[in-house]
Design goal:
This protein is mostly helical. The protein has nine helices and no strands. Helix 3 runs parallel beside helix 6, helix 4 packs across helix 7 and helix 6 crosses helix 8.
Length: 262
């Protein structure tokens, strides 16, 4: 008990210190974002690596999600005589929650770790210090471009994930059934409204921003040589994934409150 009482204050202090450091890091991002010179070429390059390079993994996962969700849900709906509701159920589930969150988690693992490892290796090999000596703003060139790229690309990846997931659901529904594409789409989007799409898209921007900030923060503050690079990459994945769940919980609660008001 005595050891636990000694450890808890240190853990709490470390958590608060980390939270404060990330908040300061985020504040600097907004200061640098609107300050010339803008690194458009580097931002576009990061959009390519973050968006296009992650697309195959995201789409493959979305395809599997849509098909598995359909196949697993169909027997239950059949037992209740509600098989005709399968397209609506899958479409609403994918668009509202499953596709945005799973896409963000995949990006937290792939992109967050990549950014953390890349910037961490630059930090320990003193490349960032060399950029400062040469007159280049490393924060603006390395951090701002990557955070903006993740903020823009993850919503696009989530939308593509929605589309592929719905298409895979159609294929899954036709394994033991026979439904035309036009009928399936009509039923799928019968109960999908703008109020379902807007919160889902909005939170993907927050997911992308959080993943970019956490990955860059962990990389820029990497220490202990090559060992620290691995620790930064691992920590970036863990913290970014946790941030995805926290943001998702907050957005769901906020949209629920506004839904109750309306």
């Amino acid at each position: 008990m005595f050891k636990i009482e000694l450890i808890l204050p240190r853990v709490l202090k470390s958590f608060l210190d980390e939270t404060g450091a990330i908040a300061i890091f985020t504040g600097r991002f907004f200061r640098e974002l609107f300050r010339p010179r803008f690194e458009f070429n580097e931002m576009l390059r990061q959009c390519y690596f973050i968006g296009v390079k992650s697309l195959p993994l995201v789409l493959a996962t979305a395809f599997i999600m849509g098909m598995v969700l359909t196949i697993q849900s169909r027997p239950t709906l059949v037992s209740f005589g509600a098989e005709s509701r399968l397209p609506q159920m899958v479409a609403v589930s994918l668009i509202r929650e499953i596709a945005p969150v799973i896409t963000a988690l995949i990006c937290a693992g792939k992109i967050g770790s990549g950014i953390g490892a890349e910037l961490g290796s630059m930090k320990v090999t003193e490349q960032i210090d060399a950029m400062e000596v040469s007159g280049t703003n490393p924060y603006k060139y390395l951090v701002v471009t990557r955070v903006v790229a993740t903020t823009l690309m993850i919503p696009l990846l989530a939308l593509m994930s929605d589309a592929v997931g719905v298409w895979a659901s159609y294929l899954g529904a036709n394994i033991k059934g026979d439904m035309s594409w036009s009928l399936y789409i009509t039923r799928a989007f019968e109960y999908v409204f703008f109020a379902d799409i807007y919160p889902a898209v909005f939170k993907t921007f927050l997911f992308g921003f959080a993943i970019g900030i956490v990955g860059c923060y962990k990389g820029m503050n990497s220490q202990k040589g090559t060992e620290g690079v691995g620790q930064s990459a691992n920590s970036a994945v863990v913290v970014a994934s946790l941030m995805v769940f926290i943001i998702d919980l907050l957005v769901v609660q906020i949209t629920d409150v506004f839904g109750m008001i309306n």
